[in-house]
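Changelog entry

Holo records now carry the ligand SMILES as an explicit input line rather than a separate metadata file. Below, a converted record for flavin mononucleotide, shown in the new format.
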Amino acid sequence: MKIEVPVEEAYRLINPGCLVLVTSAYRDRYNVMAAAWQTPLSKRPPLVGIAIAAQHFTAELIAASEEFALNIPGADLLKQVVRCGKVSGREKDKFKAAGLTPVGAKKVRAPLIAECLGHLECGVVDRYKTGDHYFFVGEVLAASADKDLFIERWGESAEMIHHLGGNWFYLSGRRAEVKE
Ligand SMILES: Cc1cc2nc3c(=O)[nH]c(=O)nc-3n(C[C@H](O)[C@H](O)[C@H](O)COP(=O)(O)O)c2cc1C
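Structure line, unchanged by the conversion:
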């Protein structure tokens, strides 16, 4: 069960620097890939950025559709994440291969992933070539999150994935509040 998240606070879904599954769609093709390089960029308007290697199928679909979605996987999806980061959707339906369920989004044609903890639906407002990657700037058009794990921010039991490089990851856990 997901709750709606105000788009101005959608950045809090990815503020912890978690790994995301980027979904995209154009015409009859849709795809999912793992991405560690994501960042919030602005609160008003709500903007986020992702760096996607120019040769990836995802870059092609986002450039053509000018839309994408960021899906936040929990630690239980670690194996599926690696699978989505090792093969290209040009050759394989990665949703099927990884056992992920595509569901309709509210504002974009890119599917959301039912098993993920949260989602940001984005329309591309800028695109830059940064070395061998494209940096896509997306305006968050809608966002949603697991109603038990996200109440204004992620709760302690939200265990997300953080990429260290290669096949190594941190899983988030402990939270701390600073009283001023
Ligand atoms: C943990 C992990 C994180 C990754 N992060 C990124 C990233 O931030 N940007 C990127 O372009 N590729 C990244 N990749 C590589 C792509 O996910 C991978 O090349 C994928 O197969 C591209 O799929 P596509 O051709 O279907 O778009 C990552 C891979 C893994 C396993």
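Spot-checked after migration. Residues 19, 31, 33-37, 51-53, 56-58, 82, 85-90, 133, 163 surround flavin mononucleotide (CB under 6 Å). The first strand starts at residue 2 and ends at 4.
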